[in-house]
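Researcher: Next entry: glucan endo-1,3-beta-D-glucosidase (Handroanthus impetiginosus).
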Amino acid sequence: MVRTHFLNRILVLLLCVSVLVVVVVESAIGVNWGTVSLHRLSPDTVVDLLKDNKVGKVKLFDADPTVLKALIGSGIEVMVGIPNEMLAPLSTSTSAADLWVSQNVSRYMVKGGVNIKYVAVGNEPFLTSYSGQFQSYVVPAMMNLQQSLAKANFAGMVKLVVPCNADAYESNVPSQGAFRPELTQIMTQLVSFLNASGAPFIVNIYPFLSLYGNSDFPQDYAFFEGTTHPVVDGPNVYYNAFDGNLDTLVAALSKLGFGQMPIVIGEVGWPTDGAMSANLSAARAFNQGLINHVLSNKGTPLRPGVPPMDIYLFSLLDEGAKSVLPGNFERHWGIFSFDGQAKYSLNLGNGLLKNAKQVGYLPSRWCVANPTRDLSAVVNHFKLACTYADCTSLSYGGSCNNIGEKGNVSYAFNSYYQLQKQNPKSCEFDGLGMVTFLDPSVGSCRFLVGVTDSKSLGFSLNGLRTIFSLIIFWGFHMFLM
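Model: Predicted structure:
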């Protein structure tokens, strides 16, 4: 009862803010910038890449200080992320929320600073596979953070949002869309909160995953070029999975009384490697088709002429250190490779992609299998190399899947060698490796050369420190209670 009363007070506060603040919204194509990389470009290089490509909106998954500092003065609209692991302390402690806002919003929201538009409270916290682990923390964390933003005088400028996976709702046809039964109450609270503050509902939609996970899924329905398997839903006909999924959400929101709520696509894209249907041509066809479709303002059958407010492509760069539990394709979503080079021709609405400039590379040399040595004892060396480096391109359906046994070994050796900044000892492998100055790349299988303006790991130590400090703070706070 106390919590419900507190929520009502917050909603009244938000309604006052929404009345006072008029926000002019322009739809645009943004990108997700993830940093779980083995070869990480410097944030300054990435910001220059965004500016050169006229990308005006970027979504982050944390509040890495090095990234936010690089965004200072760029004018790029930023969505800062709060990892799911931080929701528990933020939901129970107003002091923890004040600390987070002070360190990650107030510090940067100064004149000529970072243009923070949204704070993403968690990332897909209602995902089915989490088994409810985070969902009870989401709304309380938002309430505390909203109070903290109000104290800092940013409540009208910075909107709290929650990126949701499309598995939060379900239906056989779009018009019957509804949120999962166990989420009905919390979704009602969430969308009430969002509506009161004038914030959009953010959803991540992945037709690729529908195709990847279902052998009966019509491949042409995943794209935007028409299909021989349209979904007929009463008077409405759906020719692509994106529109069908989006209208399922519209129907689910309508059932809660919020059918007109603005929607932002937080993540959408197509990987280029690591699976049979993940390749350059498919990625280009999907992403260009998506961009053209959204920018045409056609909308969907349930929202004709009203496309999503914004869409954030997933993702800007490949992330070679991501978990491959969902599939080997997880490390290959970038429209740019790890070194900021465009993978394929793509027009975001303002011209074709431009490569990153002034990228510093290691010398042009590679580590390969020594052709004079017997490779019968190479298995353990191969496993070691691929444990630390990214070898997912060698997987079935990958771009390096058919380069032969020696090619596989060379690819693994080189990936490890580049990760170790070409340390000569990292190419020994008990005499089975050798350094070459001839590029061993074959066809579409690219043997990489590392970058010099990178960090050895893409994980943010500063971000981890923030998580740990809040968790420790939370534990101490709970101990005192």
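Model: Note for the record: The chain has two domains: 28-336, 366-436.
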